[in-house]
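Quick illustration, no need to memorize.
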Amino acid sequence: MDNYKKNSLTLKGAVALGTGVMIGAGIFALLGQVAELSGTWFPYIFIIGAIISGFSAYSYIKVSNAYPSAGGIAMILMKAYGKTTLTAAASVLMALSMIINESLVARTFGSYSMQLFDVENNSLWVPALGVALLILAYIINVSGNKIIEKTSQFMAFIKIVGIIVFAIGGLWAAHFTLGDLLPATADVTNYSAASFIGAIALSILAYKGFTTITNSGGEITEPHKNVGRAIIISLLICTIVYFLVAIAVNASLSIPEIIMAKDYSLAEAAKPAFGNFGLYFTVGIAIVATISGVIASIFAVSRMTAMLTDMKLIPQSDFGISGSIQKHMLIYIVVIAITLTIFFDLSRIASIGAIFYLVMDMIVHWGVYKNLRKEIKANGLVLITALFLDFIVLIAFLWIKANSDIFVVIVSVIGIALVFAGEKWFLLWKKSD
């Protein structure tokens, strides 16, 4: 863990990392998919997702403020369950959900970049550009924390300002009125309750980037205060940005049009409002957002997996590669993300990531409630509420996917089973060894 440097990330840098992951995936990759499941209500789905994520963040904030660590979530699970299969498996699920998020954002980068050229969006260029982005993110990550922080802060500022300009300009061009804030009442009957909850599941995935901050807790200045502050500020910024953009897209395009262009819906929404200039502007912001999102996510998950290796919770081999454990982990993470980027489309990547994350999140809440709440002076009612909300959203989402894309459910269940079985075997082997 020699590359961990205390006080190497400021509060602004931590917020930039959190918003970098969230905005990179949330608004560009998931807006169209959320609209597909909830119709004109989709801007408000992001508000609900923010509320549920706020309840979830409570567990992470309370434990991270008490025990800030560069391995954030792994540390929380270790405090709650000890060195057990549950700790190891849940940590790996979190790491996998973050890697899945990287491939999601990488493919989003490819989809938006292709809007600048007269090429089919399902061409090989989409995964190819995604792979190129992941390689670029790896190069920046091996350059050190200062480079990452400066890059993240600059890109976070550019994309947040750019997205707000897009939202305000889109509302103005669409002659937005307060009456447009009201969703179509017919959509309440056109979509099932399970469909709305499934949309909420994807919106939660758009906010889970706040965990990036907990994974960097040991490197943030004044971590006992600033970890929680950075999480709250990041969630508030992203909630405002998501809602403004969703309202702007809803005012510019019909739901069928959003669904048709769900992998690049913001770029499509810019055309009627601003013409070609708007298209180029939006694609440019999407490129900046997705680049910063991947950089921030790889930064966080490399720290977490290095921590898991030090804790002897996952196997590790350098395969003859020189350098620190963190650099080895960066290579493995990028290789897995590249594989997912090549073989899975956006919808399936997002769905598998949401399932892994919700399962892990429930394990965290239960562990904090059962074993840590008195020690860290946490409110048990808030913890149980967070657990219950996650459970409802997960069950509804699984039901939707079982009826629409059973492959996602099968892959997710097999993946979770393999993680638990593999960790059980590894820990028993380490114990006997």
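The chain has one domain: 11-432.
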